[in-house]
Amino acid sequence: MPDARKPTLPPGFAAKPKRSRLPRGFKGAKRPPSGERRGLTRKDFTSDQDVRWCPGCGDYAILATVQRLMPQLGVQRENVVFISGIGCSSRFPYYMETYGVHSIHGRAPTLATGLKASRPELDVWIVTGDGDALSIGGNHLIHILRRNVNCQILLFNNQIYGLTKGQFSPTSELGKITKSSPYGSLALPFNPVSVALGATASFVARSADRDTRHLAAILKRAHKHNGAAMVEIYQNCNIYNDGAFFEFTEKATKPHRTIFLEHGKPMVYDGGRRAVRLDGFRPESIDLTGGAWSVSDAIVYDETSLELAGIASRMFWNDEMPRPFGVFYCERRESYESRLHAQLHHVTELHGEGDLDVLLNTGDTWEIN
Ligand code: SF4
Fold first, then answer.
1. pTM to 2 decimals?
2. Pocket mutation for ligand 1, best pick of 163, 169, 179, 234 (most atoms within 8 Å of C-beta)
């Protein structure tokens, strides 16, 4: 992926579409005037920058899915901002014909929080990787989730540091042999879904680069959600960690190694041959073909249940269980910026407009000679 050629845009910035009048206030911020009505297509969201990922990288499929999705979301380019940190996935904003910031390692959530606080009407997307989000930016990720800043967080998980040429990352499996762990990594990996649930995220989902139809549906849901919507995307790094998720994406193994969570539907997989039931608090895979169990024994998934989301997320640790994809958890909760602006309004009504000069020169101030 590394490429020494200079980008033609100023450092830190992606495409710069023309400014236009922005809608007043931020009610209905996720439903700006329809891009589709103006006849926008995928091409309108594709920048003129050369895409510089390695041929065959899973990032291409994710980029194409997002570019295709944009016109369907009814957004206007001048109201959309993609913010990234550092890493292969973080080149994403260059390739979107929207506003974009290629920011600091792990700090995309801080920029997004500041932007949404001051310009809540903008449609903000964070693009990050497993190292950027969970190691360097782990602190920032958990706080944007608990604050529930209204944005979409696309966490490209390839279980490796790709840009720096293949060191183990916070999601690499135990015993992973890499350049920085020649005898095997010693720490358990993070499961990003569990991390997000633990950080009180209001929307948590998982999808994969190779399942673009599912990915588009999940991203649409994330975009509709009012709050921080985190989507973990399994992304193949064919150079440094090829095939990390093949058991969940390839035809031969996908049916019995994956389960697709659907709200209100029984947890059935493997073409209806198997299901997941609860034995106390423990999920168990059952065979529906032998006559001992039926679909009525399966868990009916409820995406508003934090308990079920926790159980489904921890299936990650059990190789006898299928790996869940889809929306784990979705909760209606007021966004951070909505609370912030309500508080500002309230305080202004009580005390009137503030004066920055007075604020800076009141109380414990002193001069240094
Ligand atoms: Fe190349 Fe891997 Fe980076 Fe993709 S994630 S651009 S395959 S190094």
1. 0.88
2. 163
